[in-house]
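At this stage, I wrote out one protein, both as residues and as discrete backbone shape codes, and that material follows here.
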Amino acid sequence: MNKTLFYFKITMAVVYTAIGVYILTNSNSLKGLAGETYTPVIGGLVLAYGLFRGYNVLKIEKNKDQDN
């Protein structure tokens, strides 16, 4: 994987994780878009997606290094 692409994917994983944490900690973050009941659910899903993306990028990079 190209190093630029690797850093971009890691950056996006961090951004998704940060947005998920923000949504979870700020109950008014989705005011007008989703009810207060759904805000923690959406925040948790975005946080989990960010962690999943980061894990996959690191796993792919590790496997690539082992193949060489």
About this structure: Residues 3-67 form one domain.
